Amino acid sequence: MDTAELIVAVVSGIAGIAAAYFGYVQVRGKLRGRAPERLPPPPQRRNGAPTYDVFVSYAPEDAAWVKEFAERLEQEGVKVAYDEVVLRPGDVRVHQLEEAIRDSAHGLLVFSRASVSDGWAQQDYVTLIERSARTGQRFVPVLIEDDVTLPEFAAIRYHCDFRGLAPENTRYEELIARLAEVLRR
Q1: 13 or 174: whose pLDDT is higher?
Q2: Nearest to 100 by CA among 79, 117, 119
Q3: Are the C-beta atoms of 112 and 69 separated by less than 8 Å?
Q4: Is pLDDT above 50 for 137?
């Protein structure tokens, strides 16, 4: 067998194994007599409500803006989760944030130049979008800077535009009140 025939045989063997594996994946639930596993719903409080109304994701560079924003939402009666609220010394960051996302009724991502390139914010975005698609939970994009293009899945949603608004601005207060009303539902 020459080199070309050997390469064809190896590639054919690998393709056959891959086809068999993917075929098995398609029918494994039927073979086991049960449906494929689904992710569990977010944990609930005893009264059936999530612990938080909203999880807020953002880049570290936007921490001061988010702190003011979260305080205003809380003044409107919204229970807000974000890293500064849920993380304690010694916690494993990813575990605590994952739990906070699971135990929040809604998700919100603050879009800025920093957040669109921040690895943690990108991971949160994927998780929040997936949860929204899977469970119908609300995902709210919040814009805080000019020159930010929303990713496609965020762009299909009505966003809150806080660009150029200071907390004492009447429009800022109106947006906070409107957002709080939606998040408390």
Answers
A1: 174
A2: 79
A3: no
A4: yes
